[in-house]
Automatic annotation (TrEMBL):
Protein name as annotated: DUF3159 domain-containing protein
Composition skew (Low complexity), residue ranges: 221-232
Keywords: Membrane, Transmembrane, Transmembrane helix
Record flagged with keyword Membrane: yes
Skewed-composition ranges (Pro residues): 233-244
Transport recorded as keyword: no
Region (Disordered): 220-250
Chain segments annotated as transmembrane: 33-61, 73-90, 102-130, 151-172, 178-200
Pfam families: DUF3159
InterPro entries: UCP010219
């Protein structure tokens, strides 16, 4: 029972880490918060963009120093950098949030489309986390159905988030959009993760294809070693007769 609880805790931790964890949520939310705060005070797009980008770089360097994954280290920097460039070039502070909004919209569509196509995006993301890779597609139909349902959940939440933010982008101002983006940063994410976890808990257990591969490799090596031990050593060859030996001539 203790081992099962420990395995479940480790799986939950890996599941949450796949989406960036608490630190990832903070790193995707705080730069936007810094931007809207700075813009509210200074009304300067350049100063606000520089402050948000500078903080994002500091967070990324911190990850690198701690030898954390590069995906999370540079993902936030690129997103903030694109937003900063868009805002400064266009002269519209709302465009700081446009790349992130387009990414959210595209990701929501991707979740729905891949679920409809029978290759749910969530399964592609979480398959390596649970060491099942793509085995859920052909060997674990219950698991595939769970990934499909969860992908629809993610798609619905992200598309709903886009439906709320894009009208403010077109008809609101930068301050309204900034605070709305901050408010809609963490709560929808936590909701999607929680519902996904509830769905997967009731699904069949993942097939650990990595363990299967390791077991086959170990069995193959053991069979090779046993075969080598069972193979008799070749008998030594008899020496060839010497023609010059007395009694063997002519």
């Amino acid at each position: 029972m203790a081992d099962q609880t420990a395995d479940e805790a480790a799986t939950r931790e890996a599941f949450f880490a796949a989406f960036g964890g608490v630190r990832g949520m903070v790193e995707t939310t705080v730069p936007g918060l810094v931007f809207v705060l700075t813009f509210t005070i200074t009304r300067s797009i350049n100063v606000s963009a520089a402050a948000a980008l500078g903080l994002s770089v500091v967070l990324a360097v911190s990850r690198l120093v701690q030898r954390d994954t590069l995906k999370h280290a540079f993902g936030g920097v690129f997103g903030v950098a694109f937003g900063a460039v868009f805002a400064m070039i266009s002269g519209d502070a709302r465009n700081f949030y446009l790349p992130g909004m387009l990414y959210t919209l595209g990701l929501g569509v991707a979740y729905v489309v891949t679920a409809l196509a029978g290759v749910p995006l969530l399964g592609l993301i979480l398959g390596p986390v649970f060491r099942e890779n793509l085995s859920w597609r052909t060997r674990n139909p219950g698991r595939k159905r769970a990934y499909t349902r969860a992908s629809y959940v993610w798609g619905a939440i992200l598309l709903a988030k886009s439906a709320i933010t894009f009208p403010i982008y077109f008809w609101g101002d930068a301050t309204q959009l900034g605070w709305l983006r901050v408010a809609l940063g963490i709560p929808p994410f936590l909701l999607a993760v929680y519902v996904t976890w509830l769905i997967l808990v009731k699904a069949p257990a993942p097939i650990d294809v990595i363990a299967e591969w390791e077991a086959r490799e170990a069995a193959s090596e053991e069979a090779s070693a046993n075969a080598a031990e069972d193979t008799p050593a070749p008998a030594p060859a008899e020496p060839a007769p010497d023609p010059a030996t007395p009694g063997r001539a002519g």
